[in-house]
Amino acid sequence: LAGPLAGASAAGASAGQLEEVDTSDVPAVALLSKLGIESTTWAHPLAHTVEEQAACLAGRVEGALTRNLLLKDKKHGLFCVTTWDQRNTKDTKQLAKLLNLEGKTNLRLCDEETLFSTMGVKKGSLSYLATINDTEKKVTFAMEKALLDQVKINAHPLRCDRTTSVAPDGVLKFLKEVGHEPVLLDFGPITTAAAAAAKKPDAGTKPKDAKPAKAEKSKKEKPQQKPKKDGAQEKGGGGKKKTLLALQYTREEDFASWYPEVVEKSEML
Questions:
Q1: Would you tell me how many other CB atoms lie within 10 Å of the CB of residue 218?
Q2: Is 140 left (phi over 0), alpha (psi -120 to 50) or beta?
Q3: What is the pLDDT of residues 184-231, one digit of tens each?
Q4: Which residues contact 206 (CB under 8 A, 6 or more apart)?
Q5: Half-sphere exposure (CA, 13 Å, Cβ side) for 257?
Q6: Pick from 152, 177, 186, 244: most CB atoms within 10 A?
Q7: 47-97 pLDDT per residue, tens
Q8: Which of 70, 40, 69 has the alpha carbon at shortest distance from 57?
Q9: Buried b (16+ CB within 10 A) or exposed e, 162-186
């Protein structure tokens, strides 16, 4: 396998420092030189993620950074995918569509053992330059089309304490030489607006603290009380109990007088 392993210390590079170094001892970089491809390699602190790499370079290197993945699908095989660092590569369904994979797909990240056995690098050091190690052509290489419009493409040269800058035509020439001409993925152009959009949450995603406004419940008006009929029995209050018919007598007190009065008052109603 060509090239030193990821994790090697960067000689002369400490936090906050960035210096141009000779990396001709790395076979991938040596091949660039052999093919007449101009390149510049920068030494910096270990950067296992593209976010750490961006922090190390701090805008001092022109061109685009890249996000690199080794994916596998049980039916379609292995894919090394290189995109602009701002792309959302977590959407494997979108990647499958861009790769024109037919039928049911299940793209997943490869484990470190597969990464090392096929590409000759450890986690955090993968890039298009690692295709030099895939001599058995087990991996399909795919690259974002818009990267070809950039001034430089910046990637780790098989170790994560270095970044090598190469013009897009040089990258294509290298890939052709190692037998990995890329499948081009069309994510759309790389623009300032695209970079801003990549940092925003998805349009369909609601902020966690956003709650739908509840409609204010209308207070039900209490029905108006109907006026009591004259002579109706009133609740509470002391004194003699009055009947609903305003009878002079009660059944308990004087049944003989009460009954005729009930009949008479009832007929009036």
A1: 6
A2: beta
A3: 999 998 876 555 554 544 444 444 444 444 444 444 555 555 555 444
A4: none
A5: 7
A6: 152
A7: 999 999 999 998 889 999 999 999 999 999 999 999 999 998 999 999 999
A8: 40
A9: bbbbbbbebbbebbebbebebeebe
Residue 75: both structure tokens together: 């039916």
Residues 6+ positions from 120 with CB-CB distance below 8 Å: 1, 2, 3, 130, 132, 133, 158
Q: What are phi and psi of 182, to 5 degrees?
A: -80, 150
How far is 70 from 127, CA to CA, in rounded Å?
9
Give the Å distances, CA to CA, from 162 to 28, 126, 150.
Answer: 13, 12, 20
Tell me the pairing of strands 64-73 and 183-185.
unpaired
User: Global pTM?
Assistant: 0.67
**Among residues 183, 119, 185, 129, which one has the least CA distance to residue 155?**
129
Q: Half-sphere exposure (CA, 13 Å, Cβ side) for 112?
A: 6
Take residue 42 and report the two structure tokens written for it. 């920068």
What is the residue-wise DSSP string for the chain?
--SPPTT---TT--TT--EEE--TTSHHHHHHHHTT--EEEEE-S--SSHHHHHHHHTT-S-SEEEEEEEEEETTTEEEEEEEETTS----HHHHHHHTT--SS---EEPPHHHHHHHHS--TT---GGGGGG-TT--EEEEEEGGGGGSS-EEE-SSSTTEEEEE-HHHHHHHHHHTT-PPEEE------HHHHHHHTSPPTTPPPTT--PPPPPPPPPPPPPPPPPPTTPPPSS--SSPPPTT--SS-TTT-HHHHHHHHHHHHHH-
Pairing state of beta strands 183-185 and 139-144? parallel
